Amino acid sequence: MSLHRDLEFTGRRVLVTGAANGFGAAIARLFHAHGAGLVLADIEADALSAIAAGLGAEAVAYDQADPASVEALAARAGAVDVLVNNAGILVAAPLLGTTPAQIRRLIDVDLVGVILLTRLVGAGMVARGRGVVLSIGSQTAFCGGENRAVYAAAKAAIAQLTRSLAVEWGPRGVRVVSLAPGRSLTRMTRDTAAPSHAGDRGLARVPLGRWGTAEEVAKAALFLCSDAASYVTGQTLVADGGYAAG
Ligand SMILES: NC(=O)c1ccc[n+]([C@@H]2O[C@H](COP(=O)([O-])OP(=O)(O)OC[C@H]3O[C@@H](n4cnc5c(N)ncnc54)[C@H](O)[C@@H]3O)[C@@H](O)[C@H]2O)c1
Fold this sequence. Notes:
- The chain is α/β, with parallel strands linked by helices.
- It contains 7 helices and 7 strands.
- The relative contact order is 0.15.
- GO terms for molecular function: oxidoreductase activity.
């Protein structure tokens, strides 16, 4: 038995949101290397076009906070075999320092937009009797974190969305999984994961002694979406260097 074939995506159409930066760009590159046909989506049209051009992918600019824009993305993407819900934002602030507009935007992008896109793209998967939905959650869903109250609440909802949809769509041939990274080195965390940052208790609690990388997150994402994980559904894989274990 070998895993090589199970990790191949040749002939499959994969939609990755938030693909212009960070995890999404790394996920797009790795899926491309494994043969996937890609539809890449992001709010940053220029950065997205640059990544998509390098991978021979379709690029769709959209705003995940706007239901009409999400609907247009789903229509453009058409029949998709794998949906990677990766686009997200972080408001790293205490709740008392967060405005209602910031709260609303975070929930719209990190939760409502994910549910709406999953509903639209997932309908096609259910109709065809196959597909995988992977949503990028966060380890803060389980551990919480300083200055993360609203973000952690949205990401905890992703874990429960994953469980419930897996129950709903499992009998229809669709797997629904989630990946919960710990803090990793991307633009989103460039301040709090910088080597010079001493402002919170984070790194001291990571048994592996370092932050994660986008490439490590991409590898876990590819596994979860692949046939190597064919009996995995409803679960969230925590990839956090051991933070949640401590
Ligand atoms: N970096 C971390 O430490 C970390 C840890 C756990 C989870 N995550 C999650 O991983 C995902 C990717 O984060 P990242 O670290 O790569 O951040 P990032 O900022 O580098 O990338 C996020 C991408 O989402 C896009 N995006 C933001 N708002 C959007 C919108 N309204 N519509 C469409 N696209 C939008 C951005 O343009 C960007 O390309 C997010 O869901 C994030 O919450 C990140």
